[in-house]
Amino acid sequence: MNPKLEVKYLYLEKSRNKLLNDLLGIDDTLLNTCPAEGKWSIGQIAAHLLQVEQLTIGYIQNKLSKEEELHTSSIKNMVSSVMLKVALNSGMKFKAPKVAASVPDVVSLDKVRAQWDETRYKLEDLLTEIPPAMLDKCLFRHPYAGMLNASQTLTFLQDHFNHHLHQVNHLKQQLTK
């Protein structure tokens, strides 16, 4: 794997493991308690994070099979990536795009962990398989920010994770008072 991607991947993996380990002490009732009508539970947030990674992997795999159609990342893509980072780190709330907004009503942490483990292995393999010549190619389309290269995509995944981690921590605090 490219060293720059590896650093980002390992940090994302460390973040995921910490979250899942922190959630081990929460019983299933609290894990699946929605704070309000139309708001996600901690379990649903975890399922959403998993779903986003699965969708991202699928999109990148599809793009890699169409090498001749890939565009080189530009200044515009870099600016969009930075704007996405700022938005996700701003504390603002965003409605999830339809494609990533379907979460189960009840979530099993064990099932999420098992699926997320499998998804992370796929992500690691995918990142390892990206040829060096493809690292500057736009491989993922974010619904709002547009096309991102592999490094920008990993930055998005980490920022997206951190955005939801704040929600999880706030919910944990609320529910365990």
Description:
The protein is mainly alpha-helical and 177 residues long. It starts with a helix and ends with a helix. It contains six helices and two strands. It is globular and about 50 Å long. Helix 3 (42-64) packs parallel to helix 5. The protein has helices at residues 3-23, 28-31, 42-64, 75-88, 109-129, 150-175, and strands at residues 140-142, 146-148. It has a two-stranded antiparallel sheet with strand order 1-2. Helix content is 62%, strand content 3%.
List keywords for this structure.
177 residues; mainly alpha; two-stranded antiparallel ribbon; 6 helices
What is the count of β-strands?
2
The 3D shape can be described as: globular
* N-to-C span: 44 Å
**DSSP helix fraction:** 55-70%
Rg over C-alpha atoms, rounded to the nearest angstrom: 17 Å
Give a short account of the largest sheet: 2 strands, antiparallel
What order do the helices and strands follow?
A: HHHHHEEH
- Per DSSP, the total helix count is 6
Q: How do the strands of the widest beta sheet line up side by side?
A: 1-2
* Average pLDDT reading: 95
Low-confidence stretches: none
Sheet-strand content, in percent, reads: under 5%
